[in-house]
Amino acid sequence: MRSVDEHLTEILGSVAALPPLDMALLEAQGTVLAEPVSAQAPLPPFDNSAMDGYVVVAADIAAASETSPVTLPVVGDIVAGDTGVSAIAPGLTARIMTGAPMPAGADAVIPVEWTDGGNATVRVSRSAPAGNYIRRAGEDVRAGQVVVAAGTRLGAPQIGMIAAVGRARVTVRPRPRVVVVATGDELREPGSPLGHGQIWESNGYMLTAAVVEAGGVGFRQATVEDEPGKVLEMLEDQLVRADAIVTTGGVSMGTKDVVKEVLTGTGTVNFHKVRMRPGKPQGFGLLEGTPVFTLPGNPVSAYVSFQVFVRPALRAMQGLEPDPLPMVSAVLAEEVASPAGLRHFLRGNLSFDRGTYTVTAAEVQGSHQLGSLATANSLIQVPEDIETLPAGSRVDVMRLPS
Ligand SMILES: Nc1nc2c(c(=O)[nH]1)N[C@H]1C(S)=C(S)[C@@H](COP(=O)(O)OP(=O)(O)OC[C@H]3O[C@@H](n4cnc5c(N)ncnc54)[C@H](O)[C@@H]3O)O[C@H]1N2
Ligand code: MOO
Question: Which of 62, 74, 249, 285 is deepest in the core (most CB within 10 A)?
């Protein structure tokens, strides 16, 4: 038996970040930036108006008030997108729109609400300091400033930022393409009828969805029978399109545990019992350089194994830190028991009330009981050396992706 940490260390020692690719900005959504993106020019690139109103020389309206407005001749309109050079002489004003460049000579913007909105002349009924409602060049981003650092996952704000500095393409680590393979003669496709002893295939769906949640592209492969030749052939066929392969089922001690049978010693794949529950039987290795994770067949075991071993590896392949799922410290609502010597991952429900996280373990914790996983929002982690934790104890809780 090996520990969870030993197994994870072997995995992380064998996977590498995928080579970077140049991608169109919108295609890169959800990928991880492999280069720092910096601004070629300041943002905003020029001083501009923050309001629809009038540009003035502040000193000209220093005495303006509701009771004694100042009237100025309006010499023109400056709208956003104006490229011509304009200037304002003292004693004059021009109408200006939000985002339009400040004309030379003017040093303040008066919002239209402080005026009578006049066309030929305008009455200004409030004074303003120099700089009023002017957005200065470079006050958002300085020229040369890194706006999105390498290693950042590109969400909507980062994509907006990169476009704002004029870039249409970026160098990113692509999403890892992960082929998910479910094995088992008893498995039938959801949507088809079941005979006695058969069940609908669910791990393939669940793990493909988990791959997507972890930032990868999931390809669910049609179920294969427990026939060694077919399983090996199918796995080898998948290598052309896979950055990683995840299998589920066929790794324990049964006579039909074909994944273990065909992969033991193939490439660098090896099988181990890991000191955890659920998820004890695990296999991992490289097949022609591609990481292969052979997860157990019990649905909750497969899911927990994915979160503990596969997700960190997929993060490393994207050039991210192989962090575990976000963890919080919570108070146990009820006592839990845990097997000696195993790290126990219990399905739980985490809630936050008046500054404290509380977690309640699901009533049933069998590794075949998917029902209690589908209603859980977290996994309580009980360390190997603990057998009982009374209500009120502090525990580490992993939040499941939502
Ligand atoms: N003698 C022993 N028996 C078992 C041991 C052991 O140490 N000694 N370990 C148990 C543990 S722990 C686990 S976990 C399972 C792992 O078994 P396998 O990985 O070989 O998985 P299967 O036997 O193929 O299936 C187990 C269970 O899960 C259901 N299953 C499998 N694939 C799917 C799927 N794609 N969708 C839905 N359900 C699936 C399958 O029907 C079985 O009920 O071994 C224990 N046995
Ligand atoms: O580990 Mo099995 O994964 O306990 O059911």
Answer: 249
How many Å apart are CA 88 and CA 57, to the nearest integer?
8
Examine the pLDDT at 118 and tell me if it is beyond 90: yes
- Would the pLDDT of 52 be above 70? yes
State the ligand closest to the CA atom of 294.
1
Decide yes or no: CATH 3.40.190.10 for domain 327-399: no
Location of structure tokens 């190997």: 384
Q: Which runs of E-coded beta strand occur in 37-152? A: 37-38, 48-49, 53-56, 70-78, 93-96, 108-111, 121-124, 134-135, 146-148
Q: CATH fold of 22-42+148-172, please?
A: Molybdopterin biosynthesis moea protein, domain 2 (3.90.105)
Q: Where in the chain is the domain with CATH 3.40.980.10?
A: 4-18+175-317
Compute the distance from residue 308 Cα to the ligand 1 centre, in Å.
Answer: 18
Residues lining ligand 2, CB < 6 A?
277-280, 296, 298, 301, 367
Grouping H, G, I as helix, E, B as strand and the rest as coil, residue 378 is strand
Q: Interface pTM (ipTM) of the complex?
A: 0.98
Our answer on whether the CB atom of 201 is closer than 6 Å to any ligand 1 atom is yes
Stated pTM of the model:
0.91
List the CATH code of the domain at 48-135: 2.170.190.11
pLDDT digits (tens, 9 = 90+) for 163-177: 999 999 999 999 999
The predicted structure's pLDDT at residue 199? 95
CATH superfamily for domain 4-18+175-317? MoaB/Mog-like domain (3.40.980.10)
Ligand 2 pocket mutation pick from 253, 298, 342 by most atoms within 8 angstroms of CB: 298
Task: Compute the distance from residue 280 Cα to the ligand 2 centre, in Å.
Answer: 5
